[in-house]
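Glycerophosphoryl diester phosphodiesterase (Clostridium magnum DSM 2767), 244 aa
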Amino acid sequence: MKRSLNIAHRGFSGEYPENTMVAFRKAIEAGCDGIETDLHMTKDGVIVICHDETIDRTTNGTGFICDYTYSELCEFDAGIKFNRQFEGERIPNIDEFLDYVMDKNLLINLELKNDMIPYSELEKKVIDKVYEFGVEKNVIISSFNHYSMIRVKEYDKNIKTGLLYTAVLYKAHEYIKTVGADAMHPFFSSVMNKKIVTDIKKNGIIINAYTVNEKKYMERLIELGIDGIITNYPDKLKKILENS
Ligand code: G3P
Ligand code: CA
């Protein structure tokens, strides 16, 4: 059976400020096979990396990303709230991130955070960046907004898409075909079931489950043959994968 991939969630976010360059560097040092990260768009159309629609939780600023220009956003510190030792980390833009990962043979999971704010042409802009940095073979674009995943395929059918969801979907393998996606990205408890996993895998669909931080769940998902495990602790998962 193929080994599950170790995908660092927002970088090595268990120990470093999420979605910052230090978190991405440390995830790679910890031995991850891939990185998951979240994308929004600024007022002047720059794609930036942050989980929430606002910068309140993760930076020393407040307000919506879409209300700032990129240069205004750069004034805020994205490390200091996590720990003073990370003072000086900034909100990365997509170019910085892709430039850093492009030659590292990683799975790159770009989550479009467009389920609350319908950023204009986010799909097209992200795909253009993916080609600019030559990472199209390594990328899965995912979202909780499945209409957006349709738009990705309309723009470029060769880009892989992943459907994020939390429910225990009835016949998930049939639903995914209606959206034309390549992968399911479920909350992990939605697929803790051999029949569900077998049905999805039999249909040639990739399953990458999030966010798995406890040893017992990592072990169970590995046993079930999940393709990718998205975790805040790539160091812990690496050890478990080595012993499984
Ligand atoms: O992509 C997996 C996971 O990150 C989705 O949920 O809220 O952590 O972005 P969230
Ligand atoms: Ca995410």
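The chain is about 30% helix and 20% strand. The chain has a mean pLDDT of 97. ok done for today
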